[in-house]
Amino acid sequence: MTVASERDTLRPDTAPPSEISRTRKPRRARRTLLLLVAPSLVLLLLINAYPLVYAALQSVRDGSLINAGEYVGLENYRATLASPAFWRSVEFTLIFTVVGVFGSWLGGLGLALLLRTRIPGRTVFKTLLLLPWVVPVVVSSTAWNWLVATPQSPLPSLAEALGLGTPLFLADPTLAKITVCVFKVWISVPFMMMLAGAALAGVDHTVYEAAGVDGATRWQQFRHITLPMISRSTYISWILMTIFCVNDFPTIFLLTGGGPVDATTSLVVLSYRTVFQNFQVGPGVAIAFLMTVSLVVVSVALYRQIRKAHV
């Protein structure tokens, strides 16, 4: 054996054929998976890209549902941001979203913690709790309209019998806002309960036992063990529920139609009215794009919190 061949044999960066084949296999597997997924990715990109680009073009034109109209630049966005109706919708959308997200999260987490205890009829109770989320929103909104819509409805009649007057839940602006927010929390609690229950199922009971031995109270265990260990799932649920609340059209439209006097008109309802009732496609699409930008900002902020969350 020559000196050069001995050096080649002893070089540390020279790998045997078996190791080379093992490193090539993951690369081939990734390439194969990419080729299998590529058609679906291209299809999804085309399905979502075309409406997005077309809507972006409409937002900078002064057109209608059947006519593209003339190019007006950012005039639709300027007019939208200068509109008092837009900012009233922004205010209600913020209230609706904050109450919907945190109200449903608190209710869902509380029920998920309750269902972890040994209560009689836990399975039946859990099934009944899912009904508000499983039942179509058309049925739920119809039931709530029957409960509160008129002075002869059950809840106003009960309030009158208790000497509280006859509250008009859907005719008074403040009561209408409260009713819509409560309705949103009611139909969203089961979804948050399932997410919280799945997160709590991954928490090891031995951690609580060790904390109990060290003298930690229930509140300390909840604050320093439960909440940190389910923080990632919590942020994910907040992102999803924020998107659901901002984009929620049927809950508001079926219950109040955006009234009274536009008190419960959210951004998505305002966008619908602008496009399909006032036939102003450009301003309506501009409102939708501003909603999209806001959702992206909130989602990115919460996603960063997911990456930072650790136990």
From TrEMBL:
It comes from the Bacteria. It is a multi-pass membrane protein. Gene3D superfamilies: MetI-like. Residues 1-11 have a biased composition (Basic and acidic residues). GO terms for biological process: transmembrane transport. Residues 1-24 are annotated as: Disordered. GO terms for cellular component: plasma membrane. PANTHER family: BLR7065 PROTEIN, SPERMIDINE_PUTRESCINE TRANSPORT SYSTEM PERMEASE PROTEIN. It comes from Paractinoplanes toevensis. Belongs to the binding-protein-dependent transport system permease family. It is found in: Cell membrane. Residues 90-302 form the ABC transmembrane type-1 domain. This is Transporter. Keywords: Cell membrane, Membrane, Transmembrane, Transmembrane helix, Transport. Pfam families: BPD_transp_1. Its main location: membrane. The keyword Nuclease does not apply. The chain crosses the membrane at residues 32-57, 92-115, 127-148, 235-261, 281-303. InterPro entries: MetI-like, MetI-like_sf. The keyword Cell division does not apply.
